[in-house]
Design a protein that fits this description.
This protein is mainly beta. It has one domain: Sandwich (Immunoglobulin-like). Strands 1, 2, 3, 5 and 10 form a five-stranded mixed beta sheet that branches. A hairpin with a 2-residue loop joins strand 7 and strand 8. The longest helix is centred in the first third of the chain and has 19 residues. The chain is globular. The structure holds copper (II) ion (CU). Copper (II) ion binds next to loops. The site of copper (II) ion has 5 residues, from loops.
Length: 140
């Protein structure tokens, strides 16, 4: 129990440090940069505080990708699967929003009001999450 508590405290400390740097605040909404490619979801930061957030999503790859936002406490590596995709309506998984198909080289934005919690960003084109298009994001 004591070990679990110290792990939790360390986790919160790291999350607070992450939220203190790399925050852009433009036009009243905070901005988070997202770059998609084969096969990664790269974020300008891994955590922020709750509220209105705009994700500026760039597809830097050669293929079409998606940006799907789910809220879950499950390990990103162990998300429920349905064939070669993540099951977005599985128990313990809440689908929050998505950009359904960002063409290669294109930029799209997604603005959401995010509550505190743990989120996972995935590309749910068959097999892409499995190949690495999964990123954890923490909202305090
Ligand atoms: Cu993809």
């Amino acid at each position: 129990m004591r070990r679990l508590l110290s792990l939790a405290v360390a986790g919160i400390g790291i999350a607070l440090m992450l939220s203190a740097c790399g925050l852009g605040d433009v036009g009243g909404g905070r901005q988070v940069g997202v770059t998609l490619d084969e096969y990664h979801v790269k974020l300008s930061q891994e955590a922020t505080s709750a509220g209105k957030l705009t994700f500026n999503v760039h597809n830097g790859g050669r293929d079409k990708h998606e940006f799907v936002v789910i809220k879950t406490d499950l390990d990103p590596a162990g998300l429920p699967q349905e064939g070669s995709k993540i099951k977005e309506d599985a128990s313990g998984v809440e689908h929050v929003g998505e950009l359904d198909g960002v063409d290669a080289g294109k930029d799209r934005t997604l603005t959401m009001d995010l509550k505190a919690g743990t989120y996972v960003f995935i590309c749910n084109i068959p097999d892409h999450a499995h190949q690495g298009m999964v990123a954890r994001f923490t909202v305090q």
